[in-house]
Amino acid sequence: MTHFIVLVLALFIGVVAGLRTFTAPAVMAWAAALHWINLDGTWVQWLSHPVTVAVLTLLALGEFVTDQLPSTPNRTVPVQFIARIVAGGFAGAVLGTAWNYTWTSLGAAIIGAVIGTLGGFAARQRLVAANGGKDLPIALLEDGVAVLGGLAIAVLTSVV
Q: For the residues 115-139, what does the mean pLDDT come to?
């Protein structure tokens, strides 16, 4: 896979983390477990272990639930923002490791996480306003975009 394609996919997996923090690492864990990416002998080979996949999947599912709660802080507060950058960077580095582009993929994914966090926040605000203030349908739409986008990226890593 060319360096450019890996960087684009890393940028997009970062965007996914910007939308939903744990979805991007969970998707990369599933990609590794399903052998869509080869992480054998790398610093992150543990990601494909069934326990890791299960934990990250449960964290992602838990995030889908907690995102709907009115007490959940805004994604742009420092703790939430930093978590999305870290998760996105990690997922991008994992993706890049499969093709020996760890560091540049890390950088691309961090940029993607910032774009996903800020862009996702702005888009959600606009869509909720356009939807008469009803947040739940927009939150569920965002969940779907994150999951389907993450899966599309994982599938592309296996076929490109």
A: 96
